[in-house]
Design goal:
This protein has 161 residues and is mainly α. It folds into 2 domains: 76 residues, no CATH class; 61 residues, no CATH class. It has 11 helices and 2 strands. It has a two-stranded antiparallel sheet. Strand 1 and strand 2 form a beta hairpin. Helix 2 runs antiparallel to helix 10, helix 3 crosses helix 11 and helix 6 packs across helix 7. The chain is elongated and about 50 Å long. The two termini are 15 Å apart. The mean pLDDT is 95.
Length: 161
């Protein structure tokens, strides 16, 4: 793969959205999963999330009950106070952040609750699991703002036939 793959990645991702959609719709899951971990690891090595933090600046993870319990304990807040102060219910009935960027994101792009962050944050960008294929609309959306997802999709297009 081209070593400059991440150069101008955002523009290239926008241009390849239809191609990603077609690939995710027709790709063989087993063939993708065979190479996914290796490509994911390459992408992680080539990308510094602290340089970007677009996910934390523009989107919200779901805050599931275990996340709320863990985070509120860590912050020494009652669960109801954490919910009232930081969270809202979305159209799917999930708790999400009230504001963007994430209130736990520092100016240095470090997360102040990193050790207890929501499970969605731990798993993001889902490029090392089959969510990449199971939720293609999410994968395509994520490729528009996350260089790791872009990198993984571009490499999958080349390596998986």
């Amino acid at each position: 793969m081209n070593k400059d793959i991440l150069h101008n990645w955002s523009k290239k991702s926008a241009e390849h959205q239809k191609q990603y959609k077609q690939f995710l719709a027709k790709s063989n899951k087993n063939n993708v999963l065979k190479v996914l971990e290796e490509i994911h690891e390459e992408a992680i090595q080539k990308t510094n999330c602290l340089d970007c933090a677009a996910c934390c600046k523009n989107y919200s993870p779901r805050f599931k009950t275990p996340d709320i319990k863990r985070i509120s304990k860590h912050l020494s807040l009652k669960e109801g106070v954490l919910i009232e102060k930081f969270l809202a219910l979305d159209e799917d009935g999930d708790y999400v952040l009230q504001t963007k960027p994430c209130p736990f994101l520092g100016n240095d792009n470090y997360c102040s609750i990193y050790e207890v962050r929501p499970s969605d944050c731990k798993r993001f960008p889902y490029t090392d699991e089959d969510v990449l294929l199971k939720r293609p609309a999410l994968t395509i959306k994520n490729s528009s703002f996350c260089p790791i997802v872009y990198y993984v999709l571009e490499n999958l297009l080349v390596k998986v036939k």
